[in-house]
Design goal:
Length: 288
């Protein structure tokens, strides 16, 4: 346990530092905000790949969905704890650099803005650390490694979400550099409006559209359909139909799954709204 925690504590901050250093060498014209934001997304993608891979290994190894064991089901949770702490700080760091670019330097104001803008994600991290980790490591005993593996695979959509953000950030960086060189008007433009403008511009590229489709597909499959799949897997082993499973397991299991899927449905609805703008904006402009 302690060794795994130590490795996680070194791996994620170290990878973040390596990414920022590499971007500084490869793209010296980028701002600190660009490098920190993209590095954060890259580290998140690496963690997602590791989690998804671990989940697939666990699922394939556990023939009995209740009692079969795999060492990754516990060890990767210990590895995940430092990531959640690191990621919370990395999100704050992104907000700090972004705010610095807009000449708002009061630390308390930055922290309040960070909490306001990221309250759902902060709650998500806190629930994982203080609720799901104790359940996964202690309260479930020696049962349910298969379902822990299923939860790990929910991270499959993260690299595609991150890529979308990286594409927008790269577009912002390129256009902002042109503005600085020619007119030096960037400080006069509101950061939120600027980002929205670049986002709309980037959304018309083929890569962004393909990535958007992959994001929706993987998110729906691995974060929404994941829960019916877990119920179906349990029912198949127990000889139950899918609709019989909720009435055959402890009530608190259904409540826990409801709490887990609720934010996923909310995030999926946001993705769908963004996708609607992505594919309808050109038509609206054409009609106008």
């Amino acid at each position: 346990m302690l060794l795994t925690l130590a490795w996680g504590s070194l791996f994620f901050p170290g990878l973040f530092a390596l990414c920022t250093w590499g971007l500084l060498r490869a793209r010296p014209e980028w701002t600190d905000t660009d490098r920190v934001t993209i590095s954060t997304r890259l580290v998140s993608s690496v963690q997602a790949v590791l989690a998804t891979g671990s989940g697939i290994v666990i699922i394939r190894s556990c023939k009995d969905v209740i009692s079969d064991r795999h060492w990754l089901a516990r060890q990767y949770v210990w590895f995940l704890i430092p990531y959640m702490i690191y990621d919370s700080y990395a999100m704050y760091l992104c907000e700090w650099y972004r705010t610095q670019d807009q000449n708002h330097r009061h630390s308390l104001t930055i922290f309040r803005n960070f909490l306001r803008k990221n309250r759902l994600m902060i709650t998500h991290h806190a629930v994982i650390l203080f609720v799901l980790v104790p359940v996964a490591q202690r309260l479930r005993g020696d049962l349910g490694d298969f379902f822990v593996g299923c939860i790990f695979t929910a991270e499959l959509s993260t690299p595609f979400v991150s890529l979308g953000r990286v594409l927008i950030q790269a577009c912002m960086s390129k256009t902002a550099g042109m503005v600085r060189r020619e007119w030096t008007l960037l400080p006069l433009v509101d950061g939120g409006v600027l980002e929205e403008t670049f986002s709309l511009r980037q959304q018309h590229t083929l890569l962004y559209k393909v990535n958007g489709i992959l994001t929706l597909t993987t998110f729906f499959a691995c974060r929404i359909l994941l829960f019916p799949f877990m119920y179906w897997s349990y029912g198949r082993q127990q000889g139950l139909r899918l609709l019989q499973v909720p009435f055959s397991i402890p009530f608190y299991c259904n409540v826990a799954n409801a709490f887990l899927i609720a934010p996923q449905i909310y995030w999926f609805s946001l993705l769908c709204k963004k996708a609607a703008r992505l594919f309808h904006t050109p038509q609206a402009k054409k009609d106008g």
